[in-house]
Design brief:
The chain is of the alpha/beta class and 203 residues long. Helices cover 34% and strands 15% of the residues. Strand 5 and strand 6 form a beta hairpin.
Length: 203
């Protein structure tokens, strides 16, 4: 029986560039690249200025670097994987290129006026998944895109039904909580318990 893996990488300081003025968030966007794959090739990502999920943040780079250390396990087991708050899909796509079978999930992006425009991030995820599909095939991995609102039980159930009826073996998340109120912690914990395999000791 496969065990659910917990991945907690260390963070490192980013290099920041000004984000162009837009109707959404104004601030800083990291100018970061994901590590090269064992083959020397790299994941290619389109970005979306003006929304938090449209950039590659330091934690995504750190988590991708950690995945590199587990590349043999990913290639050998092709684990059923779900990424929460995928944004650009950086981490999940990196995992897929290393052999994981990944479902990239997100919901409407946070802008200056609140959550909205769900299709913007989902469209970005689909574009990035399609652009790197050749890399997934080489390692036996795969990448799918699905909408997931942590507070919507039906979303999680539909994703499990379509991709992992017995639950996912690996869950990835980086920089998914960044609000001081912490109101997202409870729904995050609930959706993690709902998505992961119950017989592996979670939930």
């Amino acid at each position: 029986r496969r065990a659910v893996r917990s991945i907690v990488p260390s963070a490192r300081a980013p290099t920041l560039l000004p984000m162009p003025t837009s109707p959404g968030i104004r601030g800083l966007v990291p100018n970061l690249r994901l590590p090269a794959l064992p083959s020397g090739r790299r994941i290619h990502l389109a970005l979306e200025h003006g929304i938090i999920g449209g950039a590659v943040w330091p934690s995504a780079v750190a988590l991708s670097e950690y995945l590199q250390t587990k590349s043999k396990w990913l290639l050998q087991t092709n684990p059923l994987t779900v990424e929460l708050g995928a944004g650009t899909g950086a981490v999940g796509l990196h995992a897929a290129a290393l052999g994981a079978r990944v479902v990239l999930t997100d919901v409407g992006p946070l802008t200056a006026t609140g959550y909205g425009g769900t299709t913007r991030l989902l469209r970005l995820l689909k574009e990035n998944a399609d652009a790197n599909s050749e890399l997934f095939r080489e390692g036996g991995g795969a990448a799918h895109v699905a909408e997931l609102d942590w507070g919507q039980k039906a979303h999680a159930e539909a994703i499990k039904r379509a991709h992992a009826p017995d639950g996912f073996e690996l869950l990835l998340a980086s920089d998914v909580i960044y609000q001081a109120s912490g109101h997202a912690v409870t729904p995050l914990a609930s959706v993690m318990a709902r998505l992961l395999r119950k017989d592996d000791g979670f939930g």
